[in-house]
Amino acid sequence: MTRINLLPHREIKRRERRQQFYVVSGLMVALGLVIALLVHTVLAGYIERQERTNQIFRTEIQKLDREIAEIRQLREQIDSLLERKQVIEALQGDRAETVHVLSEMTRLMPEGVYLKSMKQAGKRITLVGYAQSNARVSHLMRALEESPYLTRPQLVEVKAVNVDGRRVGEFTLNINIAPPAAAEGDEATPAAQGTPARAAARGAQR
Questions:
Q1: Strand 166-177 vs strand 124-131: parallel, antiparallel, or unpaired?
Q2: How far is CA 58 from CA 46, 54, 67, 86, in A?
Q3: What average pLDDT does the segment 155-165 reach?
Q4: Partners of 129 in the beta sheet?
Q5: According to the model, what pLDDT value does residue 193 have?
Q6: Coiled-coil ranges per the record (predicted)?
Q7: What is the SS3 assignment for the chain?
Q8: Is a pLDDT exceeding 90 seen at residue 97?
Q9: What is the mean pLDDT of the chain?
């Protein structure tokens, strides 16, 4: 009976399997490295594109911040100009208001009434003067009440005093300045009412 020694064949097979294992392991490692490199390259490309996008956003945000700062500065300048305009309009209104008030005082002051002082605090005017009689003070109050620029006269007090050897009444009177709209309306009403009256008069004359 012939005996065959199989040990060399087994050793060869074992080496071949070991070599195949090393080759396959090397290929797997190489494939893993290639895949990792590809993934890294793709991710790096994504990250680079995102960084460029973020940089564009940051640049635009900086531009918007500068524009917002300029708009805020312009708005502050506009608000300052509007405040100056309101102050100028208020001063012009007060100047015209003072002219109207003084004109009305001169026009409505009856005979026998003399003003000693006139003080204004906001829209209220305090008149202090002398009158030959209480009836003249009442006449002044009625005239002031009918004025389109003045309203709500209130008599504070009337007392008898001696001025230059004459006995007169010293009065203190408060009166308010009428709002511009009310004053304009009162001015327009007589004109509107007078027009039909004049037209009717001309018709009657014809």
A1: antiparallel
A2: 18, 6, 14, 41
A3: 80
A4: 115, 171
A5: 43
A6: 47-91
A7: CCCCCCHHHHHHHHHHHHHHHHHHHHHHHHHHHHHHHHHHHHHHHHHHHHHHHHHHHHHHHHHHHHHHHHHHHHHHHHHHHHHHHHHHHHHHHHHHHHHHHHHHHHHHCCCCEEEEEEEEECCEEEEEEEECCHHHHHHHHHHHHCCCCEEEEEEEEEEEEEECCEEEEEEEEEEEECCHHHHHHHHHHHHHHHHHHHHHHHHHHC
A8: no
A9: 77
- pTM of the predicted model over 0.85: no
Please give the C-alpha separations between residue 169 and each of 106, 141, 173, 202, in angstroms, as whole numbers.
20, 15, 12, 48
Tell which wins on pLDDT, 8 or 117: 117
Query: What distance in Å separates the CA atoms of residue 144 and residue 105, rounded to the nearest whole number?
Result: 8
Contact in structure between 164 and 133 (CB atoms under 8 Å):
no
Report the candidate in 168, 144, 142, 171 with the shortest Cα–Cα distance to residue 155: 171
At 28-69, the pLDDT tens digits run 999 999 999 999 999 988 999 999 999 999 999 999 999 999
Q: Over the stretch 85-96, which tens digit does the pLDDT of each residue have? A: 887 776 665 666
Gap between the Cα atoms of 129 and 157, Å rounded = 11
R_g (Cα) of the chain, nearest Å: 51
| Tokens representing residue 33 in the block | 């490295």
